[in-house]
Amino acid sequence: MHFAIICLPAAGHVNPTLPVVAELVRRGHRVTYATAAKYAKAVEAAGAVFFESGEDFAAQLPRLSRSADAGGPSRMGMLAGLGSGMMAGLLERLLERARVEFPALLARLASDPPDAVCYDAMTLAGKMAALKLGLPDIALLPTYATNEHFSMRELMPGRPPAEMLAAFKQVRQLIAEFAAEQGLHDFNFMEGPPASLNICFIPREFQPAGETFGASFHFVGPSPGQRASEEPWQPRVKGRSLVFISLGTTPLNDRPDFFRMCVEAFGGTAWQVAMALGDRIDASELGELPENVEVRPFFPQIEVLRHADVFLSHTGMNSTMEALYFEVPLVAFPLQPEQEANARRVQDLGLGRGLPADALSPTLIRTVIDDVSHDRDIRHNLEVMGQRIRSSGGAPAAVDAMEHFMAGPAQ
Length: 411
Prior knowledge:
Blueprint: E1 2-6, H1 11-14, H2 18-26, E2 30-35, H3 40-46, E3 49-52, H4 57-67, H5 75-111, E4 116-120, H6 124-133, E5 137-141, H7 162-181, E6 197-200, E7 217-219, E8 242-246, H8 256-266, E9 272-276, E10 293-296, H9 301-305, E11 310-313, H10 317-325, E12 330-332, H11 337-348, E13 352-354, H12 362-373, H13 376-390, H14 394-407
Parallel strand pairs: 1-2, 1-4, 2-3, 4-5, 5-6, 6-7, 8-9, 8-11, 9-10, 11-12, 12-13
Helix pairs in contact: 2-14, 4-5, 5-6, 5-7, 8-12
């Protein structure tokens, strides 16, 4: 069969799908993958035919965050305002790009018709293409699923400002009008009915109200063990406790003051540190580095997590799932509202703790990480969750569900 995958151009959305692509190709299926040019190499390495569609999502975040309302003086209020403002801005940008790219995408799919359209749940063009072409629809969810029993709003901090809700409503109306121009009436991008098949890259046990989702939702979990590392990595010193520090790959991780505090927190201690700075901070900004602190723009995250004792993370869902897969406790320092939601879920399930943003200091950072590394309850909970994640099936279970769906009487 021929599957078209249309994905939001962001690492946290693309990466979970690549093992699925590889498994589809291994079983003899063809895959056409539409996303931004930044991910062409990774897509082709997984075995798909790449088609450029969309722009690098991460590059838009600084502009969207600057235009977002801060929402109040507290960190929780700021995250709520930032989240609603960024979401409205993102939807507006998706609409702008869809007006240009949707006709080209339709033409590409018409020239080499797929048997099904698989789309990231945040990709406007994907959902529209499946409906427009009347093809079987498969949603790919890198984060929480929603239904009548659970909405992401329940995990978001604070209450969005009224003006942001109004902006959100206006953008949704513009999207509905664009869909109507394409012959898709009563189209609801964010809150419409779910796809016929929904592949969720988290385990059911991590999903709030997970037991309420029906047979069309398959919680297959992540597949980090099946994704090839970009490079090998080993700790500099064997047998020494390792803390991995990374705030993700987006421009919002440009926090030199935070990284300097981490250097001060662990320099000269018994901890070994691997710290990913991103590509917007030069190591020279951190001053002289102690011998036990290794910094790079990026580390091969999966390889580091195989050795890590604690992960100080922004708790993006991709990073969160990879940490839990390898049973590494999390210390959360979220930068965006959805990351705050993940941090709260991690803490509620006893899989780690949050790092308070108020009065942040090197001493506080080291104390929290020391405490988490020795917490027996967290270790036990991680062992249970890790086993459940690894038994969720990953990419093979996702492809099993896709093949079964395509073989059904409706297809």
